[in-house]
Specification:
One of its GO terms (molecular function) is microfilament motor activity. The chain is α+β, with helices and mostly antiparallel strands. The protein has 28 helices and 19 strands. Bound molecules: adenosine-5'-triphosphate (ATP).
Length: 879
Amino acid sequence: MIRDEVNQSIIISGESGAGKTETAKIAMQYLAALGGGSGIEYEILKTNPILEAFGNAKTSRNDNSSRFGKLIEIQFSETGKISGARIQTFVQCADGERSYHIFYQLCAGAPHALREKLNLRTADEYKYLRQSSCFSIAGVDDAEEFCVVMEALDVVHVSKEDQESVFAMLAAVLWLGNTSFTVIDNENHVEAVEDESLSTVAKLLGCSTGELNLALSTRKMRVGNDTIIQKLTLSQRRTGRSISILDIYGFESFDRNSFEQFCINYANERLQQHFNRHLFKLEQEEYVQDGIDWARVDFEDNQDCLNLFEKKPLGLLSLLDEESTFPNGTDLTFANKLKQHLHSNSYFRGDRGKAFTVNHYAGEVTYDTTGFLEKNRDLLHLDSIQLLSQCSCPLPQIFASNMLNQSEKPVAGPLFKAGGAESQKLSVATKFKSQLFQLMQRLESTTPHFIRCIKPNSLQSPGVYEQGLVLQQLRCCGVLEVVRISRSGFPTRMSHQKFARRYGFLLLESAASQDPLSVSVAILHQFNILPEMYQVGYTKLFFRTGQIGVLEDTRNRTLHGILRVQSVFRGHRARVYIKELRKGITTLQSFIIGEKVRKEYAVLVRRHRAAVSIQKRVKSKREMNRYQKLCDASVAIQSVVRGWLVRRCSSDIGFLRSGFKGAEPEEVLVKASFLAELQRRVLKAEAALREKEEENDILKQRLQQYESRWFEYEVKMKSMEEVWQKQMRSLQSSLSIARKSLAVDGSSRNSDASVNDDQDPTSLEAEPLTESNGTRPMSAGLSVISRLAEELEQRSQVFGDDAKFLVEVKSGQVDASLNPDRELRRLKQMFEAWKKDYGMRLRETKVILNKLGNDQGGGAAIDKVKKKWWGRRNSSRIN
Ligand SMILES: Nc1ncnc2c1ncn2[C@@H]1O[C@H](COP(=O)(O)OP(=O)(O)OP(=O)(O)O)[C@@H](O)[C@H]1O
């Protein structure tokens, strides 16, 4: 389809139950696998169960028999991908047909001004009109006809403005057909090319080209409450390329055959004719026309049988319609009429009663005319239709209004009246025939492929093969003749031009200047195609089966190779180009950077020179100032020294003024001995000064050493003093606590107790505390502690005074003939010895007091005091 750019059709035929519907599904699946990918193929396949549910029924010959015919048109994009499908038939413009007259009339007859305004061209310049090669009707002048139409429009009072608007719309439709699309991104989204077609359409419609382009290349979709604008792809545009699959009810022959079988078998008869026409008639006619050597193959032509159905006025269908129009007509009168008029036709046989037999291509079928007229009339009264149109359900409304609309239209062809003038309509047989003709026209515009389904048995059982039945089908369908014609015939054919164009590039030697036939022959020779495998006609080359495949394979391989070579070469060229480009860029960059750096360097050099020059100036100025000051100072010193010398030696020297006149400078004359004396004195004074300075330095050093030693000593003394004071404070607090505790305890036991202050602490052990009430020992303990406290106070006073004195001696505040350092060490030793002794005595006192407390039964109270005192003592123990 893609290669030949011709639509195709797959016509599946065979008896009822032979497998047409199943085959159609397989064909659809095959096409979906080949051209699928967008997901639409899934939707197409899903139509099968719906159609079968609504359109199939069980018959005696097939449990799933199609009771309708369907033509599934699968549409493809330019890339061969499925882009859509339709299942209804429609009228297309086939070869030998034209579109609506007005288009051709407008193109041919529009006056100059209108032509300019609408930018009109001739009919063959519009794609829509070019679809068929027929542009004119013999004996009809479209230009004249256009004048007639314009006149008529004037007569029926259509204003000139309205007429122009109509013509503008017609021209817009024609130009719209000429718009082309270009891919704008990787996802195959397209946009209309902004050319003359698009701008003309926009002008004629009165919109901007941008708006028109948007409308042509996007689609608005509603998702919930939002509107999404979706860009369209090429595959979403109809290319007009399609493959149609025809699956209609198969040939039927039951024990009793009625109007339905009559119609079905007539349709199959038509399809058989199509098959014969393409495989035998046209094929052989083409061979003969192109003058190839061909022995004619005979075949069973069913044209006579078809004539029996279609002939006017004495064909089966015409007679049926005629009889249906008679109010008194019955099935019997119909049967009699058939027998009367058709008894001489070899394909017809009148039977007894209301029956008749037709000799179909697939065998004889006897029809019973009972119900023929009723079914053909297909009565549906206007009342019923009106009732349906008033129903609340939308579907019956739509159906009824369609039917009403149709009944209002004037109809051509055989009509009959049934139930009044308002129920005018076509008979079923006429409609069936007209649909069949439309279908055949549609199929005629495609390249047909036929699938013959052969029914293996009439039992609907697997694994049963009825040889006679199969042979009969093969014979009836003309399969044997097809095999014969295929073996001896040339199924593949191609015009010389097309063949030369398609395979010419495979030639080893250039044949550009040669005519297509010579090129074609050269190709055949080059590929060693045997003479018996092809024939050269006047306009075409004819090939036997399988020959073109070799050429096609070679072509594909070569094209693939060429593409590969091209891609490699283009890649190489691109790489070389990029390399050169990079090199050029680097060179340019180096020039630019060099220039920039040179400029920057020049600025830097200028700045540097300026800085050096400024520095030079500043330094020289500074040095000059200093030099000037030095000179001034020297002069001042010289003048002072000279003045001093002059004054000092004024008594010894004589001032001699030159006897010259006032302008001469004064001159001082000094004796040499004075000068020598002066110099000696100066030198001596300088030596003494140096000596004193050295002495001064030594003294300074000593002073520093002394100060640092003093500082160390001071620090040491300070720390010792702090330690002593701390220890003293600790002893004092311990003693005061002990004293307070004992005093409290003693007063609670014996308020009359008196304390013996004169008691020596050392006599505590020698003088046992034996009074029974315990008053004596307690007061003795208190006195011991008091004495210890006193001793501590005295000693701390003494040690403190001694230390203070030594510090004063050391610092020179007090004169004393002793060595303060040595005395301090001795004082420290004494303090340590006393501290040790004092601590020992303190502990002994504690032990004795403990013992006392325990012996006198007042243990609990003493314990309490003891715990209190010693508990605190533990935290501030003397070290
Ligand atoms: N290829 C097949 N393999 C197995 N069974 C098949 C095949 N083709 C058809 N059949 C069987 O035959 C039955 C009838 O096939 P199908 O409905 O396709 O016949 P048909 O020719 O379309 O008949 P009709 O003209 O009555 O519609 C199917 O239901 C299936 O059981």
